[in-house]
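Inverse folding, one chain.
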C-alpha cells in the first residue's frame, strides 16, 4: 500500500517535471541541454512510479529458491554434454513466476 502511494506521487512529480521542462525551460536557448536532461529525469520518474503503482517491482526481488528444472545447478544434462538451463538461464535460482 505504501509503495503504491509513493508510485502515484512519483508519476505526478515526473509529469510535472517533464511538462515544466518541455514548455518553460526548453525555449530558453542557453538551457537546452539542461531541459533535455530534466525531461529524461521526468520520464524515468514516470516509469519507476508506474512500476511501483502497478506493483511490478515485486518481480525485481531476487528469488532464494533453487530452479526446479536443474535443481539449482544451472546446468542440465543433454546426452553426454551439459548445457545451460533454459528455465533459469544458468543462475540456478527459481524465477519469480515459479512460486
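Residues assigned per position:
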Amino acid at each position: 500500500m505504501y509503495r503504491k502511494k509513493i508510485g502515484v506521487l512519483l508519476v505526478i512529480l515526473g509529469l510535472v517535471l517533464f511538462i515544466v521542462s518541455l514548455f518553460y525551460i526548453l525555449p530558453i536557448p542557453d538551457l537546452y541541454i539542461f531541459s533535455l536532461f530534466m525531461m529524461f529525469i521526468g520520464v524515468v520518474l514516470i516509469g519507476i512510479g508506474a512500476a511501483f503503482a502497478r506493483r511490478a517491482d515485486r518481480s525485481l526481488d531476487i528469488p532464494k529458491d533453487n530452479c526446479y528444472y536443474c535443481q539449482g545447478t544451472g546446468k542440465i544434462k543433454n546426452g553426454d554434454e551439459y548445457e545451460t538451463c533454459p528455465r533459469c538461464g544458468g543462475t540456478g535460482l527459481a524465477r519469480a513466476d515459479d512460486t
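The longest strand covers residues 75-78. The radius of gyration is 22 Å.
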